[in-house]
Design brief:
Blueprint: H1 2-10, H2 14-30, E1 39-42, E2 58-62, H3 65-74, E3 79-82, H4 91-95, E4 99-103, H5 111-124, E5 130-136, H6 144-152, H7 161-170, E6 174-181, E7 191-197
Parallel strand pairs: 1-2, 1-4, 2-3, 4-5
Antiparallel strand pairs: 5-7, 6-7
The structure holds S-adenosylmethionine (SAM).
Length: 211
């Protein structure tokens, strides 16, 4: 029932999926074609977005074993794994990724956990790698319904867009493009889709200089 309600609110995540597909195909054109893309989806849940990717270049990870089991049932030909994004054991997966995708996941991590995750992504990926993130945006006080729903969300860190951008930028990833996805009037919290790019090799520090 909850899943059905969420699907109705998001209409099957059609808009999110369209944005991700457009950005992914643009990235494929800029590289050596789709075969060079290796997608890692963080917090893939039940695999709702996996179908947007070629199963040969996709891997999804989520800490919820039940959700991962549901994803495997939904898409048996895809690679889904159980893993915690806060664990250093997850870091080797980033080395194999040219595109890291996440939808509604970063607000499940507090600032320190998010900074560590971003640092691991920056450290492990190659220049040109992308982070495609779609995140709910903390509504202003003038939107009390949105504010109330945000306070009840399972992810306890729904941030203002500027705060998330600041955290990602301080990891060294550069904001390449972003767009707002509004679900009004079905849902009073809008999302922001981001494409961040790793521009330089190696670890990148807060002030933007390579270490
Ligand atoms: C709002 S759901 C989004 C699921 C999926 N991306 C989607 O769009 O349907 C957030 C997901 O993040 C996962 N998650 C939260 N914290 C996590 C962590 N530390 N490590 C791995 N997955 C995590 C949850 O288990 C959940 O599946």
């Amino acid at each position: 029932m909850r899943e059905k309600l969420r699907d109705w609110i998001h209409r099957g995540f059609a808009r999110e999926r369209a944005v991700i597909e457009r950005w992914i195909s643009r990235q494929a054109q800029g590289n050596a074609g789709p075969a060079s893309l290796r997608v890692l989806e963080l917090g893939c849940g039940a695999g709702v977005l996996a179908g947007a990717f070629d199963p040969r270049c996709y891997r999804g990870i989520d800490s919820d074993a039940e959700a991962v089991a549901a994803a495997r049932r939904r898409y048996p030909e895809y690679d889904f794994r159980v893993g915690d994004l806060r664990s250093p054991e997850t870091a080797p997966l980033f080395r194999e990724a040219s595109t890291v995708v996440c939808h509604g996941v970063l607000h499940h991590l507090n600032d320190l956990e998010l900074e560590r995750l971003l640092a691991a992504i920056v450290e492990a990926t190659s220049p040109g790698a992308s982070l495609l993130a779609i995140e709910p945006v903390l509504p202003p006080w003038t939107n009390p319904a949105g504010r109330l729903l945000a306070s009840r969300d399972r992810g306890a860190w729904i941030r203002p867009a500027t705060r998330l951008e600041e955290l990602v930028a301080s990891s060294g990833l550069r904001l390449a493009e972003s767009r707002r996805i509004s679900l009004w009037p079905r849902y009073p919290i809008s999302s922001q889709a981001y494409r961040f790019v790793k521009v330089r090799p190696g670890r990148q520090s807060v002030n933007g200089k390579d270490e």
